[in-house]
Amino acid sequence: MPAVIEARDIVCRRGAENVLEEVSFSVPAGAYVGIVGPNGSGKSTLVKALLGLVPRAAGSISLFDTPLEQFRQWQLVGYLPQNLGPLTPSFPATVTEVVRLGLLAGKGFPRRMQQQDHRRVEEVLGLLGIAHLGKRLIGELSGGQQQRALLARALVASPRLLILDEPTAALDPEIREQFYALVGDMNRTTNTTVLLVTHDIGVIGTHASRMLYLDKTVLFWGGFDEFCYSPEMTAFFGEHAQHLICHRH
Ligand SMILES: Nc1ncnc2c1ncn2[C@@H]1O[C@H](COP(=O)(O)OP(=O)(O)OP(=O)(O)O)[C@@H](O)[C@H]1O
């Protein structure tokens, strides 16, 4: 099976400190990977390194069998960063305009929107329950509404790899459920590979097929079921949470 992500011996530094050490793993197409680990264990740094947003001190990364340095097909990748923070009310773009940006990476010049692109934007706004907000300036919306618009932007180009870093922190429980149902559906029906950084154990238990437990280096990498009964799992989540997560079916 082709690997969507191949990471070999990645080292990342922040100042003089190594925040990732010798991180290696390979994600097959269609996997739903839950990335967990304590605060400051390097999860966000890892996803940013995979996207080339922070430099590596050592190691190699390939996306879709292409070394990161040569990778140009960014329309295949949807990314929702952690903590974008609220946008100021004067941010000069409507929700629809922000979501459209998600389609532009896949277009050559001139970057014109086609009729089907407009339909796709409408469709994704509808899926995330924000169709009625399309014409509003994004900076005037609540944190949760802004987050949904940014999710729509990450989803609109139907990416083959979706990287979500604590995506639902600002969402209320009902919308959060809908969001994970949508991502789970993309994973199952279109084989979209998902990488999800989260502290939300319920979500991990429901959706993840593989686990990456990180604390500067990879402490566990493997199938969810194997993780479920591992000492690493008990050490990180405790026995009570382990019981809740592992009895998901
Ligand atoms: N922009 C930055 N400049 C300097 N150090 C940073 C920066 N971002 C992160 N770090 C440091 O890198 C380490 C890993 O941080 P990172 O955000 O990757 O962890 P995390 O596992 O995602 O944490 P959390 O669960 O709290 O979101 C931490 O020690 C953090 O202080």
UniProtKB/TrEMBL annotation:
Q: For this protein, what is any one GO molecular function term?
A: ATP binding
Concerning Gene3D superfamilies, the annotation shows: P-loop containing nucleotide triphosphate hydrolases
Which SMART domains does this entry report, sorted A to Z? Answer: AAA (SM00382)
Domain (ABC transporter) spans 5-241
Q: Which InterPro entries match?
A: AAA+_ATPase (IPR003593), ABC_transporter-like_ATP-bd (IPR003439), ABC_transporter-like_CS (IPR017871), Metal_Ion_Import_ABC (IPR050153), P-loop_NTPase (IPR027417)
Q: Which UniProt keywords apply?
A: ATP-binding, Nucleotide-binding, Transport
Similarity remark:
Belongs to the ABC transporter superfamily.
Put simply, this protein is called Zinc uptake system ATP-binding protein ZurA
Query: What is the organism field in this record?
Result: Trichlorobacter ammonificans
Instruction: List the gene name.
Output: zurA
